[in-house]
């Protein structure tokens, strides 16, 4: 068993290796399922702690699925250097490649907002920590675009501090603007910026950091309202609502009796500006990264 508190941050193939046999999976271990992988809760017998394991459940990984999980592990490996990005504890190689991360006791922000009337001060702290985590990702070289930022993918540790998770759709973006990714397309339609749907049919959409900023605007709306964006619209009409009519999540659901809420409401509207150039960067300064 190779374990280090600060796993290698180089983008090579050296990850801490965890023996699959050391993990115990309880009966109802599944925390959630994605396209081809699932996240499960497990107990590490030597470390005597719970971990979260992302792996394929039913069959052998194909080459490209293996690459996807592998690329996700590389990003989590970098996450060890940020307090607000989930980190990599290690990977299992046998019987399949699997990602092992810390288990987050308080689940996702989506769940918390659904179940609890979260105090405003905690909501602002979480929003701030999300922006710190995103600043970290956007300042990497190559830059990491998350491309699926939403309340479900924001996890909370035992003290309700934020860890950004799920890099299944994320992409690397080099300084020359080239996006490298083995990831599947897709994502959450309510959080995808309109320009994504406006590209010529023969052209591939190339995301920039402004993609994540738009999603952050919608996420701020989720934090403030504790509701689902466009809850009453059918998925099939969302693109035309969002792109052709330029509509956004319902501002009438935002309370008007608090100054802090009003200023966050102004910020979210800047973040979801129709023109990507009008959206602010996460770090609050002008572009430090050439192709931000
Ligand atoms: O809202 P949730 O319970 O929190 O459902 C999702 C689900 O798995 C799919 O991503 C949960 N999840 C993911 N990673 C972790 C983790 N490291 N610790 C605890 N729960 C996790 C997430």
Automatic annotation (TrEMBL):
One of its GO terms (molecular function) is protein serine/threonine kinase activity. ATP binds at residue 54. Residues 25-290 form the Protein kinase domain. It comes from Branchiostoma lanceolatum. The chain holds residues 659 to 950 of 950 of the full protein. Signal peptide: none annotated. GO terms for cellular component: cytoplasm. Residues 273-292 are annotated as: Disordered. This is Leucine-rich repeat protein SHOC-2. Keywords: ATP-binding, Kinase, Leucine-rich repeat, Nucleotide-binding, Repeat, Serine/threonine-protein kinase, Transferase. The keyword Kinase applies. The keyword Kinase applies. One of its GO terms (biological process) is positive regulation of metabolic process.
